[in-house]
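From the pipeline queue, job 12 of 40. The input is one protein chain; the requested action is below.

Action: predict structure.
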Amino acid sequence: MTALALARSWRPKTFSELVGQDHVVKALTHALDQGRLHHAWLFTGTRGVGKTTIARIMAKALNCTGADGSGKMTSEPCGKCPACMEIDAGRFVDYIEMDAASNRGVDDIAALLEKAAYAPSNARYKVYMIDEVHMLTNHAFNAMLKTLEEPPEHVKFILATTDPQKIPVTILSRCLQFNLKQMPVPLIVEHLEKVLAAEKVAYEVNALRVLAKAAQGSMRDALSLTDQAIAYAAGKVTEESIRNMLGTLDDAYLIRILDCLIAKDGASLLAVANEMGERSMSFSLALQDLSSLLQKIAAAQVVPESVLEDWPEASEIRRLATQLTKEEAQLFYQITITSRPDLSLAPDEQTGFAMTLLRMLAFRPGSSGGSGGASSSAISPTSRWCATPSSSSKNSSAHSSSCSNTNGNKANYCSISYR
C-alpha cells in the first residue's frame, strides 16, 4: 500500500491542530461558539498556508453532529460523526470544492448557484468552497454578486485566493476577509520536529532549518521537502544531505567570502567562486543567501541582541559584525542584491558571480582592489559619476556660469556657457 504524503497525512483536522494562524482561528472559533456566522468568508495568502484546510475544518464545524449525536454546532469538530468523516474522506455531498482556475466561466458559476437554491440533503449547511477565486471572469463575478450578498439561509460560501488584488471590490465588500500569514522559520522547524519524531525519522535541527528556509513560509512545501529529504537521505536527515538535495550553499562558503573581502585577498576570493562552480551550486541562491547574511550582520552592528542563539552561524555573525564597518556591510548588501539580475546577462552564472565578488572588493572603501589596481580615490563609491571639465587639462574647455534672479525669489535661472 502506498503511503500518504506528509502534507496529506499531517493536514490539520481541527482548529487546535492548525499551526501559525492564531488570529484567524480565534475569530472563527468565537463566531462558531457564539452562533454569529457570516454567510461568506474570503481567505487570502500564499500557497501552502492553510486556506483549503481551514475551509474543510469550517465545513466540519458547521455540520458536525457530535460523536454522541447531540447535533450541536461546535468550534471543535468531533471527527467521528458521519459528516466529519465524509468531509475528511472527500465524499460529503453538501461540501462542494470548486477550482476556479479550471471552472472560471459564467456557465460554471450559474450551474453552482442553481444547485445552491436546494436545501442540503443530509446536513445543517451546504458549503461551497471556491479555490483561486481570482481566476473567475468578470461575467462570472457579476453572476454571483446577488447570491453572495443574500444567499439562502442554508448556504455558506468560502472563497480562497493567492491574489486578492484581482477580486472586484463588489465581491470583497460582501465577504469577511482573513489574511493568512506566512509561516516563520522557527514555527516550521518546531512542527517538522514533531512530525519526524512521530514518523520515527532521525534528523539534525540545522537540516530542518535549511528545509524551513527553503519552504519560504509554506508549511505544505516544508512537508513536501521533508518527504523528499527522507527519501534522499535514506536514514538520518542531515544538513549536508539537505544542502546537496536542494543545491543550497553551506554558510561556510559565505563566511569564507566575507573573510576574503576583509583580508582584501582577491586570489582566494576567486578560488572560492571556482570551488562553488565545481560543486554545481546555484549562484543566484548564493547571492540570495549572502544578502541575507549581510542583513543579519548589519542588524547585529546596530542591535546586537537581534542575533538569536539558536542560529548556527550566530558566533560568526558577531565576529564579522566587529570586523566589517557599517558602511562596508551596507555597501556589500547593496551590491549583492543589485547584482542578482545581472547573472542572466553574464556569459555564465559563475562569471557573473565572480564579477560581483570582484566588484565588492574593488569598491570597498579604502580598497585598491587587492592587486595593485587603480587607487582607492579613483574607485571610491562616494565619487561622483559626472565631473566638470578640469581646468588643468590642456584640451578641456573653459567654462563659465552665470545665474540671474528674476521676480524676486520666485525663480532662479542658471546657465552654463562653454567656450
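Job complete. The longest strand covers residues 399-406.
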